[in-house]
Amino acid sequence: MRKTFAIAAVIVALPAAGLAGAALAEHHSDKSKLIASAAGAAPASIAKDATYKDLEGNVLKEGTNGYTCYPQGPVIGPMCNDAEWEKLMGAFMTKGDYTPGGFGVSYMLMGDGDSAGVSNIDPFATQPTEDNDWIKEGPHLMLILPGEGALEGISTDIADPVYVMWKDTPYQHVMVRIGD
Question: What UniProt keywords apply to this chain's record, in alphabetical order (predicted)?
């Protein structure tokens, strides 16, 4: 009787294991796609040792170099952030306060990708208006410059190759266009 039960358990478990294996393979495929989407955001020397997260912040792959990369999202293209940029993004996601603790860099070498773009004036705008300087940027770097007055004298004109985005908000930073 025990032998019959054990054989029946194996027979029942085999299809379930196959289904679990298929679901696991699909999950890894999605995970691989998300990582591939994010990997092009930074130079290979940074991307290879970066941590990868999905858009909900779940870790897809642990890294060792202090950079965190995210795949294409609905509002912004793939990006790879250093620790200071992660702090800014954490504050931004909760509409919280942020004060730069140091220099920060975020790579967006694929630009805004398939996203709808963003306002250069209002960090929380969801669509273009006549007065919010809506932009969909090509390849660029984003820099956090700490210190009072660090952004003085830098243009806010999105036509310039270097400009300040979200000036006079806690999330202000310098955009550096590096391609079309």
Answer: Signal
- Strand, coil or helix: 176: strand
Q: Tell me the H-state helices in 103-170.
A: none
User: Structural domain of residue 107, as residue ranges?
Assistant: 2-177
Between the alpha carbon of residue 144 and those of residues 14, 21, 122, 165, 179, the distances in Å are 54, 44, 17, 11, 20
**Cα 73 to Cα 96: distance, rounded to the nearest angstrom:** 21
> Whole-angstrom Cα distance, residue 69 to residue 53?
6
Instruction: Provide the β-strand partners of residue 93.
Output: none
List, for residues 131-166, the tens digit of each pLDDT value. 989 999 999 999 999 998 999 999 999 999 999 999
Tokens of 4: 């019959």
pTM over 0.85? The answer is no
From 35, 102, 105, select the one nearest 63 (Cα to Cα): 35
User: How far, in Å, CA of 150 to CA of 131, rounded?
Assistant: 25
Q: Report in angstroms the alpha-carbon separations of 66 from 22, 51, 166, 174.
A: 33, 7, 25, 21
| Terminal-to-terminal C-alpha distance of the chain | 72
